[in-house]
Amino acid sequence: MPTVGPTLAWSSRPASAPRSIHATTTAHSEIIRQARLRQVRLHDLRHTAASVLLAQGVPARVIMEILGRSQISVTLNIHAHVAPEIAREAATRLEGALWSSE
Question: Packing angle between helix 83-98 and helix 42-55, nearest 10 degrees?
Fold first, then answer.
């Protein structure tokens, strides 16, 4: 059975041991219940993590590898809604670099 730590959730199983989707979902639900958090799907957590990482400026290639995706286009297409925010930040940084008063 999974245990809940202050910042991590983990299993007593070896990292190389495969888990069925049912076992993973059951373990996730139990961790959420023990922590008294609102139930949320694992898929939603994955999407949120990718969106937050992208918004924080983590390169899409790194996010792609974390998520285990084979193509960067999948990561960028799914999380395209974050792009306008990133584009504004990039424009602000470029403006600062080109027209800095220093």
Answer: 10
Determine the Cα–Cα distance for residues 21 and 23; give it in Å rounded to an integer: 5
Type of residue found at 11: S
Q: Is 1 in contact with 26 (CB distance < 8 Å)?
A: no
Task: Transcribe 18-33 into DSSP letters.
Answer: ---HHHHHHHHHHHHH
| Model confidence band, residue 18 (pLDDT cutoffs 50, 70, 90) | low
Global confidence as pTM: 0.59
pLDDT tens for residues 22-66?
A: 888 888 899 999 999 998 888 888 888 888 888 888 998 999 888
Q: What angle do CA 87, 51, 96 make, to 5 degrees?
A: 25
C-alpha pair distances (Å), 20 with each of 12, 24, 36, 91 = 15, 6, 24, 45
